[in-house]
Amino acid sequence: IIIMYTLGIGMSAAQLLPTWELAQYSQRAEGVKLETASATVWPLKTLIMFVNPGAYDLYAPEPGYHPLAPTTVNISALYGYAGLVPLALAVFAAGVVRKRYVVIFTIFLIGSLVYGIGRSTQLFTILWEVVPGLKYFRFPVKILFFIEFSLAVLAGFGFDALRDRLAKTQGFAVQAKRNFLKILFSATVIFLVVVD
Predict the structure, then answer these.
(1) Angle at 155 between CA 150 and CA 156, to 5 degrees
(2) Most buried of 42, 68, 133, 184, CB within 10 angstroms?
(3) Helix (H, G, I), strand (E, B) or coil at 59
(4) How far apart are CA 153 and CA 77, in angstroms?
(5) Contacts (Cβ under 8 Å, ≥6 apart) of 114
(6) What is the pTM of this model?
(7) pLDDT digits (tens, 9 = 90+) for 77-94
(8) Contacts by residues 102-105 (CB-CB < 8 Å, ≥ 24 positions apart)
């Protein structure tokens, strides 16, 4: 385990040390002000794109958006659709599965979502003050990557838990697994054909 941690720290240092050194010479050496960090607001109405990717035309010009205006955000940068099945599996895992990693990624997902929404919530200021390193970032909406990553991990745990539950309730695990995978594959193909 010590070798693993030493190797991880050494590999991370190759990126973190030059970044830290460069940050000392940057205009953000002291961090950015809260007003600058929270200038862009994730419009809450766009959260529907996690469920319905067609809710907004991503290529249409947005009224009031200008790339140099610090208070506007491009809607296409907020595209968080991972799929309905992974979203349902992630919610299932967060609500039902009691494993340490599920709790960690659920907290990570909620924290990332609260931070990403920005000044629309009062918790943004608390996270910005408490979490180390957040004072160097201007656009909270860029945390969408961590939201999507957490959803993917939780969906994997949800899939495993659902598969295990089906195997236990049916009594014959192999047949249940085959049937579940057949149904999941068929439903995915049908969904993709209908959506397109």
Answers:
(1) 100
(2) 42
(3) coil
(4) 22
(5) 121, 123, 124, 127
(6) 0.70
(7) 777 788 889 999 999 999
(8) 102/154, 102/157, 105/150, 105/153, 105/154, 105/157
